[in-house]
Amino acid sequence: MTRRKKTRKTGPLAPSKQPKDKRPSEVSTKGKKKGKGLRPGQRHLEHQKATATQSESSDEKDPRVGSRRKIELVMTPEQQLQQLQNDERLQSLAERFEEGETLSAEEQRYLDEKSERYETLISKLGYELDDDWDDEEY
């Protein structure tokens, strides 16, 4: 048995169609589709309306996720010095270096950079660098 392809023709038993001229248009019968939700950009418009009625200030709550307020990223010299003093990697490398152990090139570079920065901060803050401070315990 051979396969028959489906056709779009209605055949003799189907009701006859009206000509396109006589058919009612779909737009006039359905009307305008009802939208879902608010218009795009509503959350920003509300913020603009609120700022127009109130006085402008720089610390207003941002309606978007997150904030655009600037954050100070630079540490004070005292904070940098404290961070260097609490650096465990630097302390262990300094101990290994004082014991005469050879360090890799990367470890030596890290130790040199941090030691130089430490000395710069000490002189900038006006502290005196005493060589035998660790020998004396109170």
Can you describe this structure in just a few lines?
The chain is mainly alpha-helical and 138 residues long. Helices cover 42% and strands 0% of the residues.
List keywords for this structure.
138 residues; mainly alpha; 42% helix; elongated
Helices and strands in order:
Elements: H1 26-30, H2 42-53, H3 77-85, H4 88-98, H5 105-125
What does this structure look like?
This protein is mostly helical and 138 residues long. It has a domain at 77-125. The protein is 42% helix and 0% strand. The chain has 5 helices and no strands. The chain has helices at residues 26-30, 42-53, 77-85, 88-98, 105-125. α3 (77-85) packs across α5. It is elongated and about 110 Å long. It starts with 25 loop residues before the first helix and ends in a 13-residue tail after the last helix.
